[in-house]
DNA sequence: CGCAAACTTGATGTTGCTCAAGCTAGGTGG
DNA sequence: CCACCTAGCTTGAGCAACATCAAGTTTGCG
């Protein structure tokens, strides 16, 4: 049913590069590597659906995924965008709590859930590692609640751009690549695509950003963007 | 600085009742009990502030706390209400990510962070226990993101009431005690207190709930309330 | 070069916010 | 014991922000 694209030549896992293995000993890393397989996923494909049985745990190696929940009438809330180094699929008992879909082409490292669970008890420090990853997700979720509940459209867009900038931290150029479409941004920020588009245009008119193309944003005045993200409105708006 | 109310007679910890100890062996439970002390906190007091050094981990034994974040200009987002059995203070590196304040009188079981951290590595199954608690919080946070980003006022209030009803699950009476004030509800749902008040009145007029007093809600038509929470609008609205 | 999907922009509508009074309940002091 | 007083809640009128509906415009791909 889902659009899995199996790797033609399943390359062996380069475990020491995995976030999951950070801080573990050589033998444990080897054990984790033996358990995982790479999986490729083309852009705009579903990895799993909310309510599916959670059979695997994944670490993203390359590309970007989005996670979202849907109301019966189709309203969608994107709960997060995950890029290389993020884990997913661990936070569930049996069933996934959200749908995961690729934004770009993605490479994942996949672990069978049963074997993965055993590691949590057997490898010292591994549970702590997962705990830290889950805390990070929780912190992001709390920031997002503040954004969704209390920020206006300009603050939401500014916060989103600052987040994207922090994520890649391409200190060189001030130009940012935005892989997701306007619909995904809108569903992440609790806005409509029209408001996203209008607000970006407004920031461009005020000289805070440039928009050379829909997927590229030039951060012309990052300081003001950070001000706007926190509600520190500048008189010029 | 904070309004701690020390227990006059520090009763010994009844560790087997603690959520934190669920599934652990006798000796580990004893160890945790030896580490904890009870602490009382009167209603409307601050337990810790966002940005404070996280020195303790707590389990709530009695009463209710709220967690919230604040923007520079004072806008507030309540990220959660915690009642008996919930843990707090674990999800941080060094600094607290939110402010914790009591809603009612509260009894807490407090653990020094340094010793608590050691347990995570030394007691098998303990990290897994914390992981499960953190997943629960994360699941709640994701549901709240959907609520804040995509639900209207009626759906938000209905969801809130259903959540409160599930929490106590007082299957007997259909009357619910709401310990927090309208301001807290508003800041939890991303609304103003006026909208909270108006929406509750509207549900009362439609016969879905009764409001014998501001702190009491009678669930007259729970099925419809659950429909409303998920956006399944009934024609009568 | 042509086409479809995605994005932008404009006009209008609705929801929930703001501002402004009342109302109610619980606690205090006479 | 009762009247007052205050904090919190409710209700109303007008308004602002964002959504909705409806064209255009651009982009990227075949």
Notes on the protein architecture:
By secondary structure, chain A is an alpha+beta fold. Chain A is built from 7 helices and 11 strands. Chain A has helices at 26-35, 113-122, 126-150, 153-168, 182-189, 193-205, 222-229, and strands spanning 37-41, 46-48, 56-62, 64-70, 76-83, 87-88, 99-102, 106-112, 175-177, 209-213, 216-219. In chain A, the strands form 3 sheets. In chain A, strands 1-8-3-6 form a 4-stranded antiparallel sheet. In chain A, a hairpin with a 5-residue loop joins β4 and β5. In chain A, α4 packs across α7 and α5 packs across α6 (193-205). The longest helix of chain A is centred in the middle third of the chain and has 25 residues, at 126-150. The radius of gyration of chain A is 19 Å and the shape is globular. Mean pLDDT of chain A is 89; it is low at 1-9. At the A-B interface, β5 and α3 of A face β5 and α3 of B. Chain A binds a DNA duplex (30 and 30 nucleotides) through residues 152-153, 181-183, 191-198, 200-201, 213-214.
Count interface residues per chain for the largest interface.
Answer: A-B, 42 and 43 residues
Strand order of the largest sheet of chain A: 1-8-3-6
**Structural class based on helices, strands and sheet pairing of chain A:** alpha+beta
Low-confidence stretches of chain A: 1-9
Percent helix among the residues of chain A?
Answer: 25-40%
Cα-atom Rg of chain A, whole angstroms? Answer: 19 Å
Q: Quick one: overall form of chain A?
A: globular
Number of strands of chain A: 11
The number of helices of chain A is 7
Q: How would you classify the quaternary structure?
A: homodimer
The whole-number mean of residue pLDDT values of chain A reads: 89
Beta-strand percentage of chain A? Answer: 15-25%
**SSE order of chain A, one letter for each helix or strand:** HEEEEEEEEHHHEHHEEH
For the termini of chain A, the CA-CA separation is 48 Å
Largest sheet: number of strands, sense, barrel closure of chain A: 4 strands, antiparallel
């Amino acid at each position: 049913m889902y659009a899995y694209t199996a790797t033609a030549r399943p390359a062996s896992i380069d475990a020491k590069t995995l976030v999951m293995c950070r801080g573990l000993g050589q033998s444990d890393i080897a054990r984790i590597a033996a358990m995982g397989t790479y999986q490729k996923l083309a852009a705009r494909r579903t990895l799993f659906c909310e309510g599916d049985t959670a059979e695997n745990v994944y670490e993203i190696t390359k590309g970007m995924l989005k996670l979202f929940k849907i109301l019966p009438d189709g309203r969608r809330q994107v709960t997060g965008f995950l890029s290389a180094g993020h884990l997913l699929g661990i936070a569930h008992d049996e069933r996934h709590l959200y749908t995961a879909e690729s934004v770009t082409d993605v490479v994942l490292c996949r672990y069978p859930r049963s074997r993965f669970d055993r590691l949590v008890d057997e490898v010292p420090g591994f549970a702590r590692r997962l705990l830290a990853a889950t805390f990070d997700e929780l912190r992001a979720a709390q920031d997002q609640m503040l954004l969704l509940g209390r920020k206006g459209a300009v603050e939401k867009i500014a916060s989103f751009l600052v987040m994207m900038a922090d994520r890649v931290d391409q200190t060189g150029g001030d130009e940012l690549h935005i892989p997701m479409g306007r619909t995904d941004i809108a569903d992440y920020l609790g806005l409509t695509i029209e408001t996203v588009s209008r607000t970006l245009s407004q920031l461009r008119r005020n000289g805070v950003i440039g928009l050379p193309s829909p997927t590229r944003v030039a951060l012309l005045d990052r300081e003001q963007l950070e001000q706007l993200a926190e509600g520190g409105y500048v008189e010029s708006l």
